[in-house]
Amino acid sequence: MSERIPVLVRVRPATEAEQKDRNVVKCSQDRITVNDKTYPLPGYGPDVSSEKIYTEHLMTLVLQGISRGINVGILCVGQSKSGKSHSLASPSSAQQQGLVALTAESVFSHVEKQHHFVGVSYLNIYQEKFTDLLNPADQDIKVKSHPNFGQYFEELSEIHVKSKPDLMRLFDQGNKVRKILELEQSIPGTKSHVIFKITCEHKTKEQRLVRSQIFFFNVAGLNHSKDHDVSNSLTSLQSVVLESGAAKRQTGHVGSKLTQILKPLLDRSSYLGVIGHVSSSSQRRYHGNGQPTHEVQGD
Predict the structure, then answer these.
(1) All residues at 6 or more sequence positions from 288 whose CB lies less than 8 Å from its CB, including other chains
(2) How many Å apart are CA 180 and CA 201, to the nearest integer?
(3) Are 132 and 153 in contact (CB under 8 A)?
(4) I want to staple 8 with a disulfide (CB 3.0 to 4.6 A). Which of 42, 104, 131, 151 is the partner?
(5) Helical axes 99-111 vs 59-68, angle rounded to 10°
(6) Contacts of 103 (CB under 8 A, 6+ apart)
């Protein structure tokens, strides 16, 4: 869409069941081709690391956001099991890092010689209800607006972290809590949105306070199931994205909880990177309930 909102596509590795399928997606650095139809978007194949994607498309947004006090969003979209969680989280291989870990490196490298504060929050949205993944009590979390700091979350915990390992420990802890919620409360992970937020504050040499927030969105996949909440949420998200590029922007659009959080990041004073996750297979395999019949790495 623009330098402020880079959009790219990432193709996940084929599963064992997909090995014999026809590959319908071809990628290059400036376009992606699906069934002989070409789109002017950067495409990255299964062999490309998250580090390469971060370095080429997202690192500049993050560093500018931290230094200038600009909010940044990284939006991972795609069907369930298309690799969204894999992009965000660090793989089991110690030689590779996910987008959260890479961003944490940028944050602490930038502020380490300055007086600073770094805090993290982790939020789950299921059926339009918020759950704090770092303190999963029954809070009444609300999205509000501050005249100086912009959007904030009332009753959502924000935990101070002093290093990248501290940050990643809380990210992993939140992921474990999410898995527990799926088991204990029958919350399907494939039907919930997840938002991890890093707040960064530091003082310049002139003692000016600079504050930015970095949001990571793992958006639920619609698949082919008739899920009312997910469908409404994604429809609302699409409306706001289209509205952001319109010559005349509408006002008063509230939409879903996801849209409330995302909308300020589509403003001209923010940055947003969008990563679409797809499979290269010509076949789609689903259970009758809309879930894939095979497992792949990540959501």
Answers:
(1) none
(2) 32
(3) no
(4) 42
(5) 40
(6) 54, 58, 62, 74, 198, 214, 216
Residue in the structure block whose two tokens are 């704090």: 132
CA angle 137, 190, 43 (to 5 degrees): 125
Quote the tokens at residue 8.
């790219």
Q: Phi/psi at 170 (nearest 5 deg)?
A: -70, -35
* Residue showing tokens 């990432």: 10
CB 26 within 8 A of CB 32: yes
Say if residues 198 and 118 touch (Cβ distance below 8 Å). yes
pTM, 2 dp: 0.84
Beta partners for residue 32, in sequence order: 27, 39
Cβ contacts of 96 within 8 Å, gap of 6 or more: 49, 50, 51, 90
- The DSSP letter of residue 18 is G
Sign of the four-CA dihedral 62, 87, 151, 131? negative
Structural tokens at position 259: 């849209």
d(CA 245, CA 262): 14
Residue 253 contacts residue 263 (beta carbons within 8 Å): yes
Cα–Cα distance between 222 and 226 in angstroms, integer?
8
Contacts of 268 (CB under 8 A, 6+ apart): 4
DSSP state, residue 139: -
* Mean pLDDT, 10 residues at a time, the chain of 299 residues: 80 75 78 83 89 94 94 90 86 77 95 88 90 88 78 89 96 93 70 92 89 93 53 50 47 65 81 87 51 44
Q: Which of 273, 286, 140, 181 lies closest to 225, judged by CA?
A: 286
Rg (CA), the chain: 19
Q: Give the Cα separation of 24 and 35 in Å (integer).
A: 5
